[in-house]
Amino acid sequence: MSQQLDPGADDGSIEVRRDGAVLRLTLDRPSRRNSLNQPMIDTFVSALTAAATDDSLRAIHIRGSGGNFCAGADWITTNDSTRPRPRTGDIVRRLPHTAHRAVELIHSIQLPVVCTVQGWAVGLGCNLSLAADFTVAACDAVFWEPFLTRGFSPDSGSTWLLPRLVGLTRAKQMLLLGEKIGGSQAAEWGLIHQAVASTDLDEASEQLLTQLASGPTVAIGLAKQAINYSLHAALGQAMTQELYNVELACRTADFKEGLDAFRERRPPQFRGR
């Protein structure tokens, strides 16, 4: 089932499509390199929020339409001088529930998230791809954090994601110097999962999605949660969290199937339960 959601006065939409056990979200505003206006961000957040409690889903795929992934938040439209000036504190009040919430949901949702990136991944668009569990990009894709070149400080998780992915020095290269990073270099740095030729992009993404969507979904979600928790925890705390996650995972049907498959020397057939 495919649902095309009209964001209203501004052009652009998010296509939300269910493809078996995979939820596919397509940023659809090619005339502006899929930059996200406020209604599009709201739709994106709503789709991920619903997916978080949908037990029939086993993976999420995010991509852009046309030749680009996402050119970030649409600040030009947001700061249109013909519109009423927002009251003081608008950014502080709004962003935690919009752009920041989108990044947080991708990072924390207990489903594996794959991003496919071609062309530009800029600002918020870059951070959406970095928050994913696996990002597959074209070798000639461009990852760019242009916040300081536009005169404002970074947001949408960039100061948290980048140091953890590539270290402080490279994070500062991207954030303070505004360096653009190509897809191949991003893969070499460990910024993303994989860089491939543009002609191989769809195949590489689909192979990854097939593998993830056929895995033990509950255990994958618990493993993702434990990895995220460990970023703030001491070793003992992380292992305690692992204990509770193992207790839950061992109660799933997929755990029983994994043991049966091991005993019978066959590939497991996980059902995500």
Automatic annotation (TrEMBL):
Record family assignment: Belongs to the enoyl-CoA hydratase/isomerase family.
Top-level lineage group: Bacteria
Protein name, as recorded: Enoyl-CoA hydratase [Sphingobium japonicum UT26S]
UniProt cross-references to Gene3D superfamilies, sorted A to Z: 2-enoyl-CoA Hydratase, Chain A, domain 1, Lyase 2-enoyl-coa Hydratase, Chain A, domain 2
GO molecular function: catalytic activity
InterPro entries listed in its UniProt record: ClpP/crotonase-like_dom_sf (IPR029045), Enoyl-CoA_hydra/iso (IPR001753), Enoyl-CoA_hydra_C (IPR014748)
Species of origin: Mycobacterium shimoidei
Pfam families, per the entry: ECH_1
